[in-house]
Structure formats: structure tokens, C-alpha cells
Design goal:
It comes from Halalkalibacter akibai (strain ATCC 43226 / DSM 21942 / CIP 109018 / JCM 9157 / 1139) (Bacillus akibai). One of its GO terms (cellular component) is plasma membrane. One of its GO terms (molecular function) is metal ion binding. Residues 142-204, 206-264 form the CBS domain. The chain crosses the membrane at residues 290-309, 315-341, 362-384, 390-415, 427-450. It is built from 22 helices and six strands. The protein is mainly alpha-helical. It has three domains: 6-132, MgtE N-terminal fold (Alpha Horseshoe); 148-262, CBS-domain, CATH 3.10.580.10; 280-452, Orthogonal Bundle (Tetracycline Repressor, domain 2). The protein has a three-stranded mixed β-sheet with strand order 1-2-3. Helix 1 (6-22) runs antiparallel to helix 2 and helix 20 runs antiparallel to helix 21. The longest helix has 31 residues, at 354-384.
Length: 453
Amino acid sequence: MVKLDEQNREQYEQLILDTLQAGDRVQFRETFLELHPTDQVDIFVKLKDDTRERVYEYLTPEDFSHIFEGLEIDHQKRIYQELDENYSSEMFNNMFADDVADFLAVMTGRKAEDILKKMNKEEAEDVKELMSYAPETAGAVMTKEFVSISSTDIVSDVIEKLRNDAPDAETIYYLYVVDHLEKLVGVISLRDLITAQPTEVIEEIMSTRVVSVTDDMDQEDVAKLIKKYDFLAAPVVSKQNHLVGIITFDDVIDILEEEATEDLGEISAAKGATDVNVSSFTAAKKRSPWIIMLMFFGLITAGVIGQFEETLEEIVLLAVFIPLIMDSAGNTGTQSLAVAVRGLALGTIKRGSIGKMVKRELGTGIMLGLICMAVLSVTVTIMYGHWVLALIVGFSIFCTLSVATVIGATVPLVINKLKLDPAIASGPFITTVNDILGLLIYFSIATALLDFL
């Protein structure tokens, strides 16, 4: 198998394009199929419509199934429309069940049912089972293509079984052992199997301390568990401990990417609109609820300023520092928010360490406030020649940053306690709240010291 680098990628792409245009089926298959599947996908997505037609003609449904699995969902939907029904049905039969389930989950109307009817009965049943699980659970993301063995099997028989079953399995690095009721009772690594004596019974060499996940476990918790134990795969069991599937490391990478994208969307108040391929209308529809809500929060900010109208009329110069106070509060709060959300996502914030984390953020805010207060006091005194004004601005920034860090750290913790995603304590939300508090602190101090200005 050839893996392309930047130096020979263009050469291979041109060679493959030339063989397609020349109608040389044998040369195309020989050149294209020796590439890594990922490189095959990269080249395929660059082909034009008429050229792709020849690809479908030259590649068998089994060959093309590996390419189809590597495409993004939106691209899969477009390519599916170009395929012959019989060709696509055979292609789905050769794909892993979890990849077929992911594709059918986004199909509208009765298309998913029609596809399942045309598939082999056994393959279709596996896909239906995966689709029956709640979204974002272990059952929904697991694969059904795995190798299970019996505790009474002999090593030599298992090795022979692997020769027959391994090509259709997603991974064989771990072999999961079941009893006569198909309940998970042990696990054995491929290395232990190969180094064992051919006549040994699996029950004698397997490990009975199996770390498994239940089919209704949240996918993010599954990813954390596999990361914690450095597994290449983890078995999925039912409530009765029946082995129903496995989740592999590549599934975990997809889960982490999906969760990170979701958290990024929550934090930026753009959930569902972070994909660059989303249309302007869809992006606006997804973002508008947050923007409208934050707009009303902006009215509260305006109301705070209005409450201190007399103070502003007395010393108009105070208005110059409003953006500075607001920006500093929002920026500091967002930094603490990122620390808290990341800690909750990685599971590094435990019940006993919450107080420690909040205390650390408070300490950070106090130190940042002292630094900024010192810099601003000197700068304002030099620029405006008024030490009282410098004191007001400097002490306001000190108090604001101290409070902003605590709010940025505690709000996600409170939301997490309510069993909600802490990422919904979005950056814009924390920023707006801290803006309001920063202005209240600033004008309260200024009003108290108004007689000295």
C-alpha cells in the first residue's frame, strides 16, 4: 500500500486522471487501489462529475465502500445520488454497520427504509440495531464487526477462526470472550493468543478483569474511559452483560472531534453554525437566538450607564474608560470560563478540587488586577494629570478583574451541577454579565469619590 507525500501526490493524481481519461481500467485499478484509502478519498473528491462516473464503472462496490466511508456526510449524500441502486446496495453491504447507520441517520423520508430493504438481511439487521439506540450513546456509535470467542475454545482453533473472520472485523487486537449465554466473561490480547501454547484453553489464559461500557453510556464518557486506559477498543455490553459490539479508537477520535466542535459552538454562541459549509441562512438562524438574547442584555448595560447619568454629567471624562473596563472584564471572564469548561470536559475537576480551582482563579484575578491597576494608575496620571481619576480607574479594574475571574469559573460549575452542558455558559454570555458588573463597580466607585474629582 502506497501512502502519498507532498512530492508524489500531484504525480499520482495526474497519473490516475490520465488513466481515467484514457479509459484504461486495468492501469487505473492497479494505480488507484495500491494507495492508502485516505489518499483515495482525497483524490476522488477532486474529480469532476463525468470522471467519477468512470470510477464507479472501474471499481467494484466493495472497492468503493472504503472511499464512501471516508467521505463527509454531506458529500456522501451527493455521491449516493450518482450511484446505481444495485451498486449502492452492494456497497452498503460491504461497509461497517456503524458507518451505514451514520449515513442513514441523515436521510430524509423513506429513503433509509428503502436502502435497508435492498441490503442483505443480516447486514440490515445490524444497522437497524445501531439506529435503535439513543443518539450520542455507546450503542449508537459502536460497531458490530468484531470477533468474539468462547471460553472453552482452544488457542489453535481460535487462530484458525481469526484467519477466516479477521478480514471482516474492524479490529482483532483484542478478542472478547463470552460464555454459552453470550455474556462477556473475559478478554485476551492478540499477543497473548499468539504466544500461548496451541493446546491451551482460552479460559486458562484470558483476563477476567474486563473494562466494558454499557450500551446506554454517553459517548463522551466512553471516550474518556478509553483514553484513561489507553485502549485500542472497548467492549459494549447490555444491561444483562451480553456483548453487543465494540467501540474502537478511531471512533473515539470522531467522538472527541464532535464534542469539541459542539463545545466550541456553545462557548462562541454559534452552536450548529461552526461548519463553513453551512449556508448563510442556516448560520443566521442558528446564531440569532443568542444574539437577540445578548442584545437584550446590552439594554441592561445601557440601563446601568443611564443610572449613573448624573455622575457622567459631572465628570464626562469617566466615559473614556467605559470600553476599557468592559473589555477587561469580558476578556478575563472568558479566560476563566475556558479553564473551567476544559477541566469539566477532561474530568480533572473533581468534587474536592472545585474550591481549589475557584480559589486559584480568584488569586489569578487579584494578581492580574493589581498589575493592571499599577499600570493604569501611572498611565492615567501621566496622560490626564489627575491622581484621583487614576485611583478610580485603577481600583475599578482591580475589583472588576477579581470578580470576573470568579464568575467565569463558577458559572460553568453551577450549570454542570444542573446536569447541563457547561459549555452553554458561552463566552458572549459571560462577557456580557461581566460587562454589567464591571460598569456597576466602576460607576459606584466613581460616584463615591465624585467630590474628590
